Amino acid sequence: PCSPGGGCGRHLGLDNEQGSQAYWSERAQECYDNTNSDDTAEDRKNSATCDLADEIKAQHEDFMPELGCSVYSDLMTAALSEVNWYEIASHLIEQVLSEAQSGEAQP
Hints:
Layout: H1 18-33, H2 41-62, H3 71-81, H4 85-101
Helix pairs in contact: 1-2, 1-4, 2-4
């Protein structure tokens, strides 16, 4: 679910590869750009974070290997259920906003 606070703080290697880092940075920017510009800055940030969190979670679930009915499948499912997708997305949105404030991008 989409909720701020708590969580593991892991970024699942999203920023380990340059291509992946660039992709998720672009998606974060697009999620922010797609928010309602009439909303407050905090509402826009929360909306973008929720949208991005849902997208990151969906992609990781979609690309999870088929492990059949096994202990490995159970372990993988349990591990992914503990990920705080909101926290990961929040970090990416914060980077977008930080870059915008420093003049590197436009939110």
